[in-house]
Design a protein that fits this description.
Elements (H helix, E strand, L loop, with lengths): L17 H10 L34 H5 L3 H14 L1 H14 L5 E4 L3 H8 L6 H19 L14 H14 L3 E7 L13 E6 L16 E2 L2 E3 L5 E7 L15 E5 L9 E4 L18 H23 L2 E4 L4 H10 L1 H15 L2 E3 L2 E3 L7 E4 L9 H16 L3 H5 L7 H40 L16 H5 L1 E4 L8 H13 L5 H7 L4 H17 L26
Antiparallel strand pairs: 1-13, 2-3, 2-8, 4-5, 5-6, 6-7, 9-12, 10-11
């Protein structure tokens, strides 16, 4: 407390300025605003404290916050993913735990809904199974086509396209897939279907001639009065392709759907606010910290390199005063000649390695490298935990350091990260993978390639029911196979799980598992061998592995 000349506390000066005027206006005419009073019911709304006084962010719509600054944020995110090992590894971990190397279709048409909508009893479980097998077989031939006719550029399978689209969504904030109708590719040795997809770089989705957003055009997305995307404006070439400079200044307006209802554009991004039309990548909340961490790594590495370069030095018994005295009588010259003769005439060798020989009075001293600092590892690990928290994966998955983790903590960390990874995977399936399947299914049903009962509705009349499906992606794996397989068996025995669900978590098709087990059992019987006891009463009593020591 500060006192005046009379010993009384000095009252704080009354606030002035534009902020004070805005606060008085908010309170209404004639209202008094005492300094540091209880005018602000929440500290978060105060502008009088040192912590809050210079923190005055604006209220803006999501498009106003993202679109005008998107190019700079995306360029920085890509640079980080290109040149920072931790960032690149984090993206790889998410991709490997969501899409993986392949995503297999598991068609599951909603026959109950179709029966209720149409009153047709032929839509039953038998038809659904027949439809599923036919759809999955035709989709495999299309998605994994050797000729890659599913891709406009004929380079990627559907699974590779999905992985690329999710990578764009994670780093750039958007995944953009455009469907093309290419009937000229159909023929013997060519494509079977005219539907073909192209993954488009989200940079090309922009307002024509870089004009500012308007009521009906937001970051290249054309919307109507209800906010429904009706068309997308896509550059014909990337804006910085100097070899396509003409096409880079030409935009193509692609409608979201054709007149016959065929889906043309699949735009997927993670929405944080209502009314948002473009997305942001996973690096954006921690971009500044990641850049500072990369710089810190460089500084520590340079310091350690410099310290290691100057490893040893030789000390002489001469101090500066002795050198000054020796220069007058020639003693220093004699001593230097002695050193030269000593080194040249006595090269000690041991198994081809030279041992240093010193003149009388000389010693070798090593330089102690003080870098990296003792707390560098802990600091870097703590910084990486911020990205782990923002991306929804565990810190162990980011750092790949499991040295301080036992079974219980690893299981808990992976279960928590699995929730976020499952949510990302499910949203990507809903936003990109299933619409791509529905787009192809539209053509397949128009060509009558799939079994349908009599008087079945057209695809457009029940496309949600026909297109219902799931995707088998990455296996969750096991931390302890014995414990977790026992838990799966107990869950199925207790009617808390099913073989289909347990197989799906390990990226297996339960029908293929059953058929393969039946084939193996028949082979054992044909060979006259007793079939193995895959599981039974003794499985629940399997030996438990010893508990690992708890980390200190």
């Amino acid at each position: 407390m500060i006192l005046d000349s009379t010993g009384n506390p000095i009252a704080p000066a009354a606030p002035t300025g534009a902020a004070y005027g805005r606060a008085r206006a908010d309170l209404g005419p004639g209202a008094a605003l005492a300094p540091y009073s209880s005018v602000f019911p929440y500290e978060a709304s105060s502008w009088q404290t040192q912590e809050m006084g210079d923190w005055l962010p604006w209220i803006r719509s999501p498009d106003a916050e993202i679109n005008q600054f998107r190019d700079r944020m995306v360029a920085r995110s890509r640079d980080l993913a290109r040149n920072d090992g931790w960032a690149a590894g984090g993206i790889t971990r998410i991709l490997d735990n969501t899409v993986g190397a392949s995503m297999r279709l598991a068609a599951n048409p909603d026959y109950r809904s179709l029966a209720a909508l149409t009153g047709n009893s032929k839509f039953d479980a038998v038809w659904a199974e027949e439809f599923r097998r036919a759809a999955e077989g035709l989709w495999r031939g299309y998605a994994d086509d050797i000729g890659r006719y599913n891709d406009v550029s004929r380079q990627l399978t559907v699974s590779q396209q999905l992985r690329l689209a999710l990578r764009h969504k994670l780093i750039d904030g958007d995944s953009l897939v455009v469907a093309y109708w290419l009937p000229e590719r159909i023929g013997r040795g060519g494509a079977r279907y005219a539907t073909s997809f192209m993954v488009v770089d989200p940079d090309r989705l922009s307002n024509p001639y870089q004009m500012v957003d308007t009521k009906y055009l937001r970051g290249g997305v054309e919307i109507d009065d209800y906010g429904v995307p009706v068309a997308y404006h896509i550059r014909k070439a990337h804006q910085n392709d100097w070899y396509n400079s003409v096409e880079s200044m030409q935009w193509e307006r692609v409608e979201r759907e054709d007149e016959d209802g065929w889906l043309r554009v699949i735009h997927d991004f993670e929405r944080d606010r209502a009314g948002q039309n473009r997305g942001i990548g996973v690096f954006i909340p921690v971009l500044a910290r990641f850049k500072m961490l990369a710089r810190y790594y460089g500084v520590e590495l340079q310091a350690a390199t410099i310290a290691a370069t100057f490893g040893t030095y030789v000390t002489s018994p001469y101090d500066p005063e002795q050198v000054d005295d020796a220069l007058s009588d020639g003693e220093l010259s004699n001593y230097q000649q002695l050193r030269s003769d000593w080194a040249s005439e006595r090269p000690a060798m041991l198994n081809g390695a030279r041992i240093p020989t010193l003149a009388p009075g000389e010693t070798i001293t090593s330089v102690g490298a003080a870098h990296p600092h003792n707390g560098f590892g802990e600091f870097a690990h703590e910084m990486l935990r911020t990205f782990a928290a923002a991306s929804g994966v565990s810190a162990e998955q980011i750092t790949q350091d499991w040295s301080k983790t036992n079974y219980s903590s690893a299981r808990a960390a992976l279960l928590e990260s699995w929730k976020t990874l499952t949510r990302r995977n499910t949203e990507f399936k809903i936003g990109t993978a299933t619409p791509m399947y529905a787009c192809w299914l539209h053509e397949a049903m128009d060509r009558r390639d799939l079994p349908l009962p009599r008087n079945a509705p057209d695809f457009l009349d029940a496309r949600t029911q026909y297109s219902r499906c799931d995707w088998l992606g990455v296996a969750r794996g096991w931390v302890d196979p014995v414990k977790e397989k026992q838990g799966a068996i107990l869950g199925m025995d207790g009617c808390l799980s099913t073989l289909k669900r347990e197989c799906a978590e390990q990226s297996l098709d339960y029908e293929e598992v059953i058929q393969q087990r039946g084939a193996e059992k028949r082979l054992f019987e044909e060979a006259g061998l007793p079939p193995p006891k895959w599981f039974g009463d003794g499985a629940a009593d399997a030996a438990q592995p010893p508990d690992e020591p708890q980390p200190q």
